[in-house]
């Protein structure tokens, strides 16, 4: 068992028994579940919309090399600079290089899962650069020294009382502040950071090849401020975020907002195609886009798993997953949690270390049912399990157990061996792990074979 697997088991065991944690997350997810159906009403045929979006992403991923080159060509025409990074270390090195050139002491950053993936904040801090998260949820998590809990809602596991206590401890505010007052406090703190920062960092929800631009979706406006106030804007984005045309946003923006938060459209939707032009009054002097691989081509070259690159990070599969709703985001021990995280993490960070995530699923298929772009998530979880066995990442004892089970299931005589009482003693006495969270198993005193013969004696 890998170290990551042991950590996962320990964390998930604790969280599954934490009723207060489960109450908070189910309360917050319940809010989304109440409004998402209403948001879907904007589509004349929501299933057709999802199918079309899947086809667009299929085209983008199948021609990804061409799309990326077209994006670079169009983006550089307007003065932007494109940097290709094979892994997180290269991406961090490029960011630090730019920061040194700009003599950067402080940096503002909008919500971005890919920067969490490469641990950008830690690298900046180690190099004497103050990095401030400007999304409210991310800011709360940064104050608390925690990683984001959810792809869309970073502080989903915290109640308003938790946030009030955190602000009281870190910022000296009153413990009795309302959510609106806490938001105002954060706004006052962060507004000063925008004008002080030399560099702004954002992610991108989509890369648009035909115009050489990036699209950013948000509800607070912090991403716009992070890329407009500082003189240098750095975008770090995974190469899978590609869509072929600006016209595709008419489909993807409503899908992302509806399946993510139940909105018809998010509050701020921005397209950025480069640094400030001669006839423009605002925007950065320089703009860089770092196109990050970091294991994504491992998925791209896998014909069956390639479909997982269609993901638009709406978070719907997390909200639907019974496992996620019980163990929470931090138990996964990875940047991307829930069903989509369980699929891509083994390929991004190593199958041997993270294969256990693909087994942390009931395979109920609810994730596939709610996916905005119709990714067959539960089938990809099964495919991961198959690949982990084929690659030899399975213990000898597990191999033997399945061989014995297969042998017994194919031979009626072996299945009929032993009475119900004997089976009860063997299973309930030997399988300690099974018994820790379950009641005793009670086998029938007669086998199915015996009951069948008794019923149909002729």
Distance between the termini: 52 Å
Q: What number of structural domains do the residues give?
A: 3
Tally the helices: what do you get? 25
Q: Name the helicity range.
A: 40-55%
- CATH H-level superfamily of the largest domain: NagB/RpiA/CoA transferase-like
Query: How are strands sequenced across the largest beta sheet?
Result: 1-10-7-4-2-3
Q: Overall 3D geometry?
A: globular
Spans of at least 5 consecutive residues whose pLDDT stays below 50 are none
Using the coordinates shown, work out and report the CATH topology of the largest domain. Answer: Rossmann fold
- Tally of DSSP β-strands: 10
Percentage beta strand: 5-15%
CATH domain class name of the largest domain: Alpha Beta
Average of pLDDT: 94
Structural class, please?
alpha/beta
At CATH level 2, the architecture of the largest domain is 3-Layer(aba) Sandwich
Write down the Rg.
Answer: 25 Å
Major beta-sheet overview:
6 strands, parallel
For the structure shown, list the relevant keywords.
10 strands; globular; alpha/beta; four-stranded mixed sheet; Rossmann fold; 3 domains; 458 residues
What does this structure look like?
The chain has 458 residues and is of the alpha/beta class. It has 3 domains: 1-41 and 309-394, Fumarate Reductase Iron-sulfur Protein, Chain B, domain 2; 47-294, Rossmann fold; 400-455, no CATH class. Helices cover 53% and strands 10% of the residues. The chain is built from 25 helices and 10 strands. The chain has helices at residues 3-16, 19-40, 46-62, 64-77, 88-101, 113-117, 120-126, 136-143, 160-171, 179-196, 222-228, 249-261, 296-300, 316-320, 324-327, 338-349, 351-354, 356-359, 366-370, 377-390, 396-409, 412-415, 420-430, 432-435, 448-455; strands at residues 81-85, 106-109, 130-133, 199-202, 206-208, 213-218, 232-238, 242-243, 268-272, 286-292. The strands form 2 sheets. It has a 6-stranded parallel β-sheet, with helices on both faces. A 4-stranded mixed β-sheet has the order 8-5-6-9. A hairpin with a 4-residue loop joins strand 5 and strand 6 (213-218). The model has no long low-confidence stretch (mean pLDDT 94).
